[in-house]
Predict the structure.
Amino acid sequence: MSPARRRRIVVLTGGVGGAKLVDGLYRLLPPDSLTAVVNTGDDFRHLGLAISPDIDTLLYTVSGRANRAQGWGREGETWEFMAALRSIGGPGWFQLGDGDLALHVARTHALAQGQSLSTVIAGFASAWGLAMRVLPMSDDPVATIVDTDEGSLAFQIYFVERRCAPAVRAIRFDGAVAARALPEALAAIAEADAIFIAPSNPWLSVDPLLALPGMRQALAQARVPVVAISPLVGGQAVKGPTAKLMGELGLTANNAAIAAHYAGLIDALIVHEGDDQPDGVTCHATNTLMPGERDRMRLAREALALAKTLTQ
Ligand code: GDP
């Protein structure tokens, strides 16, 4: 390896939690050395529009457009469309801000014209001047279905409309077996110098990626460090249903369960300081909370340093 060659970093990620780590890495790394492979199991059609929540969250976060206080959507968003929709009795359970809507309309139009999702997303990233690659995990549709005590629910119904209240019994990824992992994503994993599994929900945000043919094998066969960052802090999720879901699946919400979930795939786990450090995997404890830029960059720097020590 030439000493001047850039380290190629791949992150497997969902939306909110993962995007923060990707943001930290993006601010640290030279342009074009970072690739995010993003969950599309949350994607759905609403009012005829193709919506990709995790990809859009990542794009908003890394381009500085995310609404941090709210934890989702865009900063400075306006809501004329929703008000007009409600005034004619349209569905109000899924919030579509005016700026956000532009992405959904443009994506739906481009897909209808025959463009692939990965091409559409590359177009958005390039329009916003992002130098990193944002890859959907697949160009084929995959739908996360949550089997609950109230029956089988499409992911957004469970997550947004029912606010994760139903007890989860099992999670399925419709279409995953027939879907093709994005070839560029598999290639990026094969060529990476380090691979991170972001602090995203392992069951809802990372498992859809792992369900794609070839993805799990690509990770297991990687000869470079694979490092996961735990989404748990003090046995709780920072945001969202991770801990509740783990309990419903019969698991204890701790890092031992996260490590067991990624067994055979990861070489190291970054855990929040003071939390459990499971045996059988290298653990690095630090403050994993990433509210601001400096926290994101610090955690990204530590993750890169850990991967480097594992390479040597
Ligand atoms: P979603 O698809 O938008 O729900 O996004 P993710 O799955 O990527 O994010 C949800 C997960 O991110 C939850 O399990 C949170 O605990 C985790 N998370 C959010 N913010 C942070 C943070 O600052 N640090 C850590 N370690 N985890 C976080």
Observations:
- The chain is about 40% helix and 20% strand.
- The two ends are 13 Å apart (CA to CA).
- The chain has one domain: 9-310.
- The first strand starts at residue 9 and ends at 13.
